Structures are given as C-alpha cells and as structure tokens.
Amino acid sequence: MVDPITLGMSLGLGMGGVYLLRQYWQQRANRLRTLALLEKYSSSSRIGLHQGRMRLLVSMPQVGDLPLAEQQAWRERESRRDRNHLELGLVHEHQDDAPGDDDAPEPTEDHRLTELEARSQWMETHEPPLEQHAAVVAEEHIGSGVVMATAEDEEHEVDIEERLEREGGASGNVQISLAWDDYNDLDLHLFCPSGERIYFNNKKSECGGILDVDMNVRPVSNTPVENVVWKGEAPLGTYKVGVHFYKHHRKRRTKRTCKFRIRVVTHGESREYLGKITYGQAMQMVTSFSLADATHKA
C-alpha cells in the first residue's frame, strides 16, 4: 500500500513539474513570436563605420505597426502592467503638493536638497516594488505607440541640444535624452544590454552608461531634460528606453498627462520620438533598439 504522504508529495512534485514545463513553453512561444514580429515589422539601417567596424541599428516596432490582433494582445499586456503598478503601491500622492504659482520664487538649494531627501526616503520603501515593476516592463519588446518626429513637427520642436548645454549634459557614441514642457517629474529608465537599468537611483552603470542630467525632483523648470550617455564605447546588444511618471507637481498649467520627446543618438545618427504619459500609468516601454556588428551579422 502506498503511503498517503508519499503519494501526496509525488503528486505535488508532478504538478509542479507540469507547471514549470508549461511556463517554459509559454515563455519560449512568446520569444519566438517576438522574433517573428521583429523580423516582419522592425526597420534596420547601417549607420557607418565606428572604430573600424560597421554598426547595424535595428529599431523595434511600435504597437501601431502591428496587426489588430497583436495590438489587442499588447493592450492586454499594458493593462496588466497598469494593474501591477497599482498593486505594488507605486502611485502615490505627495503631501507637499499644494497648488503652486508659476510666478512664485524659484526653489532654493535647501528646497531641492529637501526634495532629494524625500525621494531617497521614498526609495527606501519602494525600491523593491519599483524593481519588480521594471522587470515586468522589461519583458515588453514592442514600443508603446510613440511616433517618429517628422519635419511637420519642427514648429513644435524641442531644442534638446540647447537644454543639454544649459544643464551641462554630455554627448557620446550612444545617447538617449528625454525632454518635456512642464514642471512634472518624469524619469528616464534605460535598460542596458547587460540587464542593468540606469535611472535616478543608479546613475552610473557598470557597462559605462551615465545619467548625467536628472531634473524636476523639485519643480524648477518647465523646459526640463534628462540624459543617459556612453562617452566611450557602448556595448553591443539591445537597449530599451522607458519613461516613468514619478511625480505630478501641481503647478499652474502642469497637468496629469504629459507630452514628451525622446531623442536616440547612435554613433552620429539621431532619431526622435513623440509620446505622452499620464500620472498613475505603468512605466512606458517607449522604444528599443539593438546595436550589432554589421560585418558579423552579415
């Protein structure tokens, strides 16, 4: 006669094995589907020689480029990310967010240091859930629906270079900049090929990327910019560009939906993207791109 405890353990282990196997095949199917989508919808261009090597830039598709069925699947994933954002307690109202006045005196250095300390204290509690949320967002391979900036956008052009010069931002072989036009605090999150994430709490990565401009922790500017740059050789692989709406500063004409512009520079070639994000939304996977050795790829 089989011992009931032994039988129960065997059944439990068997069911666990089936569950893990099912998870593996689901993840494998998702990877194969993603590769198929990239093969069909991604655009690539040779971007010239860099240090004696030809570089290939592959831009990942945006949700609007996909068939309707795939767009629906993306919306379902986005809905899950929004729920995850809420469940992890990453939507918060700040007690110091009294309605402001654009004509009020500029915050002093003491005010800025106070706000930096408040963010540091927030991170002591929320860094683990923010890491969990970022891991969920990093699984996405499709952009959130931003559009490429065109000549028609020039009348509303944001001079990112001028803002970077004003703030002392550097330029480099690979550079990703985020700009927006109000007092809100958006945060640039750059997922590196190594899996490391560059953002305000990890400004220097082991692979050489640096967040050298981080603005509007305190609402000091309605023309802010953030900047991640590789001054030296940037690693090959896939980079993912995320935007998180960290804090809604309730100043005049600063709303809970914020338009932004992303500029991606890779070895001298520049692309700009236009998008928007609403306070309380999940972190947006705005766009992603891969750098490869074109000679090896060929």
Task: Provide the number of structural domains.
Answer: 1
Shape: globular
Structural class: alpha+beta
What is the helix tally? 5
Pick out the low-confidence regions.
Answer: 95-104
- Quaternary structure type: single chain
Strand order of the largest sheet: 1-2-12-9-5-6
Percent in strands: 25-35%
The counted number of beta strands is 12
What is the share of helical residues? 25-40%
Please explain how this structure is put together.
There is one protein chain. The chain starts with a helix and ends with a helix. It has one domain. The chain is 34% helix and 28% strand. The protein contains 5 helices and 12 strands. It is of the alpha+beta class and 298 residues long. Strand 10 and strand 11 form a beta hairpin. The strands form 2 sheets. Strands 1-2-12-9-5-6 form a 6-stranded antiparallel β-sheet. A 6-stranded antiparallel β-sheet has the order 3-11-10-4-8-7, with helices on one face.
